[in-house]
Design brief:
The chain has four helices and 15 strands. It is an alpha+beta fold. It has one domain: Jelly Rolls (Sandwich). A seven-stranded antiparallel beta sheet has the order 2-3-13-10-15-8-7. A hairpin with a 4-residue loop joins strand 2 and strand 3. The longest helix is centred in the N-terminal third of the chain and has 23 residues. The chain is globular. Bound molecules: 2-oxoglutaric acid and fe (ii) ion (FE2). Fe (ii) ion (FE2) binds next to loops. InterPro entries: AlkB-like, AlkB-like_sf, ALKBH3, Oxoglu/Fe-dep_dioxygenase_dom. It comes from Microlunatus endophyticus. This is Alkylated DNA repair protein.
């Protein structure tokens, strides 16, 4: 009798394990962009496009990237002090192999969808790993390159814990828009957004797990 009970229990357990492995092995795939992207017009020629749930199988991609990306910490001069950049980073230049084929497909899909409007393809992939709510990115525009003077686009795919991307017009100290970016969501900042608006991932005291952001940019935009 007791042997049967044990056998039943172990069957259930292995079935559970198999289910969770199946969940884990859910195919990593991208849903269509056509007809599923919503544009929010900001001021001064800036806009944001949102495509929630673009990536399926985001758990599998998250694990793969946490393990497989050559994350490194950076330190940065802040006035008189050198401080830790509060997130881990990795940059894939246009000829670098991306850590999962789905990211190549993402880049191609974005280039196909936005090519006519953007006038060029997405080329590079920057990655940030926010280990917990203490990791952040301060208010900034991506203006190291051409975003300083030209309209452009920065497309961000998020995996892992949801964090809020905040936006404000340059010169303002108040947040005008908050976009919670969840597991598999896409947001695209476009038009003049990098030079006329600023964005940030602010710290949160809430207990949040790790989040990875993958930013696709055209050549010369940083
Ligand atoms: O984590 C994000 O989604 C934003 C990252 C960002 O703004 C940047 O790397 O320039
Ligand atoms: Fe940025």
């Amino acid at each position: 009798m007791s042997a049967i009970t044990v056998a039943t229990t172990s069957r259930t357990r292995s079935a559970d394990l198999q289910d969770s492995l199946l969940d884990f092995a859910e195919d990593i795939d991208l849903a269509p962009l056509d007809g599923a992207v919503e544009r929010r017009t900001l001021t001064r020629g800036a806009w944001v496009d949102i495509r929630p749930g673009w990536l399926q199988g985001a758990d599998a991609l998250m694990s793969k990237l946490v393990e497989g990306v050559g994350w490194h910490a950076e330190r940065r001069q802040m006035y008189e002090r050198v401080v830790d950049v509060p997130r881990m980073l990795c940059f894939y230049d246009e000829d670098d192999a991306l850590p999962d084929p789905v990211l190549d497909r993402a880049k191609t899909m974005l280039s196909d969808y936005y090519g006519a409007e953007l006038g060029e393809p997405f080329r590079t992939a920057g990655m940030c790993l926010y280990r917990d709510g203490r990791d952040s990115v301060a208010w900034h525009g991506d203006t190291i390159g051409r975003g300083k003077s030209e309209d452009t686009m920065v497309a961000i795919l998020s995996v892992g814990a949801a964090r809020v991307l905040s936006l404000r017009p340059r010169g303002s100290t108040t947040t005008w828009a908050r976009y919670p970016l969840g597991h598999g969501d896409l947001i695209v900042m476009g038009g003049s957004c990098q030079r006329t608006w600023e964005h940030a991932i602010t710290k949160t005291a809430k207990p949040v797990g790790p989040r990875i952001s993958i930013q696709f940019r055209p050549r010369g935009v940083r």
